[in-house]
Amino acid sequence: MSSAVQAGFIQKQNRIVALIIKYPIIPTLVFFVVMLIVFAVLSPINRVGQNIFLSPTNIANIVEATAALSIGAFAMTLILLVGCIDLSAESTIALCSVVLGMCLETLRVSFPVALLITFLAGIGCGMVNAALVIKFKVESFLATIAVAMVFSGIAYVVSGSRTVLLTNRDTLVRWFGPMGTGGHFLGLPMLFWWTLLCLVGMYLLISRSKFGRWAQATGGNMQAAYSSGVNVNMVRAVAFIIMGAFCALISIIFCARLSSSSPSFGQHMGLRLIIASVLGGTNFTGDGGNVFGTILGSLVMGVLTNGLGIIGVNIYIQQVVTGIVIVIAVVFSIYISSKK
């Protein structure tokens, strides 16, 4: 290879790397498209000659299955954007699920009051995390791990480690349940509309508001943001409170989909929220924060699980594949951070 050709190849390679660094969502988008093609080709055909993976029913299943993941990932994107991390999400979801179950079955309060109490429980969990991180200067990683154990323990103690069937659930299912049980509006699943509402709200908050600029400044360089007059403590507190509120919404969705409440709801959800955010272009140094990338990341996780199941991959192999994707996403995030 001549020196001129080699120099041209290196220059082209550098341009590709620079483009990926500027738009880290590109590899995720490419992977998503390739994944769709592979699953569509390998998917079996049902009795009426329809591709199972591409069928409207399966697409609706993917939308409903990834709704909770997408909603939580939006909030996790904000948490990462302010330079923190929240590993208590799954325990907050479990605790809020138990609270909702108690409100509907034990206390028999009205549906709006039950929702209000559930959201207050989630917000309270977020405030506990915020207090530990801001007031007591505990690293968010350690604080949220400790709090997760507390929330999970409370959920199991209060519920007696039991799953409670929700008999008073008609309104809950109609507003937050799957399409097959009446949870639809204008021919689309209600979970689609809740995801869209959260997507628009978080987009306006992160990308189109002064708070969003404060959040990005806080995550980028907290000391510099503080010196510039940004109330970094308020910004981080709001991020944790929003995370708690979104976890409450996820718990409501779980309860509606399964017509029950359980202290086991939300297991392994916390790490999936982080990975969906990272796949969407948000890294651990507070850079990124594009919620449209985040929903793409959650769709990658949802389609990966759905597609592997449809083509008959062993569930343990599915865990291996998902783990490999997570490792690649984390390594790529660290690489992009170092380059920037």
Q: What's the arrangement of secondary structure elements?
A:
Elements lengths: L2 H20 L2 H18 L13 H26 L7 H18 L4 H25 L4 H20 L4 E2 L4 H7 L7 E2 L2 E2 H18 L2 H11 L1 H6 L4 H27 L1 E2 L7 H11 L11 H20 L4 H25 L1
Antiparallel strand pairs: 1-4, 2-3
Helix pairs in contact: 2-13, 3-8, 3-11, 3-12, 3-13, 4-5, 4-6, 4-11, 5-6, 5-11, 7-11, 8-9, 12-13
Explain what the structure shows.
The chain has 340 residues and is mainly α. It has a single domain, classed as Orthogonal Bundle (ABC transporter involved in vitamin B12 uptake, BtuC), CATH 1.10.3470. Helix content is 74%, strand content 2%. Helix 3 crosses helix 12 and helix 5 (111-135) runs antiparallel to helix 11 (232-258). The relative contact order is 0.18.
Features:
14 helices; two-stranded antiparallel sheet; mainly alpha; 340 residues; ABC transporter involved in vitamin B12 uptake, BtuC
Q: What's the arrangement of strands in the largest beta sheet?
A: 1-4
Alpha carbon gap, first and last residue: 31 Å
Report on the biggest sheet. Answer: 2 strands, antiparallel
Number of helices: 14
Concise summary:
This protein has helices spanning 3-22, 25-42, 56-81, 89-106, 111-135, 140-159, 170-176, 190-207, 210-220, 222-227, 232-258, 269-279, 291-310, 315-339, and strands at 164-165, 184-185, 188-189, 260-261. By secondary structure, it is mostly helical.
